[in-house]
Amino acid sequence: MLKVIIADDEPVIVKGLKKLIPWEEYGLSIIDEAMDGKELWKKVTEKKPDIVVSDICMPEMTGLEFMARLKQEQIEPQVIFISGYQKFEYVQEAIQLGAVDYILKPVLREAMEGAVKKALLRLRNQERLEIFREEKNELQELLARLNSDNGYAPEELYESFCNMGIDYKGKTFVGICFYLDDKRKKRLEVENYKKAELIKFSVFNRIQNFFRDNKKGVPMKREEDCLYILCMIEPKEKGTLLSDYVLPVLDLVEQEMKTELRSGVGSFSEKASDLGYMYKSAKFAYEMRYFLDRKVICADDIHKKFTDSFEDYERLKKEIREMLVTRRPEVTEKFEECIELIKNLHYGNRYAVINRCILFSGTLNDDLKAYGAAFGEDEKRQIEFMEKMRASITYDELKQEFLDYYGLLTNQIASRAVLWENPAIAQVVNYMKAHFEEDINMRKMAEMACVNSVYFGALFKKTTGRNFKSFLTGLRMDEAKRLVITTDLRTYEIAEKVGYQNTRQFTEKFREYYGCSPAEYKRKLTEK
């Protein structure tokens, strides 16, 4: 069983978390708990848990201080943070420090289970199954030696190859990386992680056998998700490498194992002493899969543009901020220009692109808040957006998330601008948000706006996009759902708190909104 420590300065929260999900079903055992940050640090260093679930605002040592210290001491449990309030800066820093997830209180079972699954996937990726531990064969030792300062002399190299039964004289060398399609691999791991590992093991063994049987290559290195082959061919075969050796392997695996395989091909060399370079160029081709949706990626076909600079990025970022604040519609095109510029700046480095997008998002949000163009409600969407970027498998996925998010944000800022341009309606909306539980009606609100009821109704809908009654009901139902989730109030008590004197009328409206009664909604949450 994997070990878990839960930390919160409120004992009732710790007790609730221990009962929230069936930890044992996930192969997890809660071995201890802590009431403050120092106690948590002491128990983590002593008991070496695999997963830590902690409030981010602990006394004695905050969650962020705890994460920073873990990193400094190179201790690597998977950390899931919980918090009673949402602050984007905390979320951003926690994730940058390596936290698995950030969950808002009250913690729902579904959210915790999702975070635990993420943590388990990370742990398995770190530890790997025994069958995927790197093989310490002679070729790997040779590779390590060639990449160190103590390289082999040509005669030593020849002797080393001969000892492995490899005749490399007169050959052309190239490193080839084989790997499962990322989307297919992700689906397999979600369905059954152990099965996914066994499939990889079988696939990589089949590839090794193919090159061994054809006497054209040997395994150079096996990593968690890919296999590197050192391929040795006649110089005249360089032009037919893909058709003779790479594509046949991909087709073979797909036919025999019903698994989509892809490949990254490194640069050619006539010297066996370039073994380290061949491995690195094949690895570079493999890393380019984030940017290029190709069955085979060849390192020699990749060319980076050097037309963009970080000065261009800063200029564009400033331009976007100014266009958003002044509500210029052409800002949409600038977002597309921005994501392409970020790609060009960090082309070939997936993590640099993602981190740059996260940094852009954080600084832009701070700027918009300073100008009064962003609100607290935007931060939740921003956190979700950040998680989607981190989870993106390809650059195209990242780009689409980026454009969708900022397209929505642009529209929201524009709609808020309409509200600002109608101060009478803005005053009414703010009043409704603060007093929705009171006896509010259109006549009273029209008087507040100093217009007649008929004109008020038309103006309200034009400004907010919703009619008065629908807008008021939406405010009440949002609060009702929050109270159902976070309190133990009875249905009639919730009805009164959101402005309904008739409990039956409230229940019917709640059912209309959420598909069930408040009591049924509460029961579904506890059953999850």
UniProtKB/TrEMBL annotation:
Coiled-coil ranges per UniProt: 122-149
Positions of the Response regulatory domain: 3-120
UniProt domain HTH araC/xylS-type: residue ranges: 426-524
Principal location listed in the UniProt entry: cytoplasm
SUPFAM superfamilies the record matches: CheY-like, Homeodomain-like
Keywords, alphabetical: Coiled coil, Cytoplasm, DNA-binding, Phosphoprotein, Transcription, Transcription regulation, Two-component regulatory system
Cellular component annotations (GO), alphabetically ordered: cytoplasm
InterPro entries: CheY-like_superfamily, Homeodomain-like_sf, HptR, HTH_AraC, Sig_transdc_resp-reg_receiver, Tscrpt_reg_AraC-type_HTH
Subcellular location: Cytoplasm
Keyword Cytoplasm: yes
Gene Ontology molecular function: DNA-binding transcription factor activity; sequence-specific DNA binding
Family matches, as Pfam families: HTH_18 (PF12833), Response_reg (PF00072)
GO biological process, one term: phosphorelay signal transduction system
PROSITE patterns in alphabetical order: HTH_ARAC_FAMILY_2, RESPONSE_REGULATORY
Modified residues (4-aspartylphosphate): D55
Protein function: May play the central regulatory role in sporulation. It may be an element of the effector pathway responsible for the activation of sporulation genes in response to nutritional stress. Spo0A may act in concert with spo0H (a sigma factor) to control the expression of some genes that are critical to the sporulation process.
Name this polypeptide is given: Stage 0 sporulation protein A homolog
Species in which this protein is naturally found: Marvinbryantia formatexigens DSM 14469
Highest classification ranks of the organism: Bacteria, Bacillati, Bacillota, Clostridia, Lachnospirales
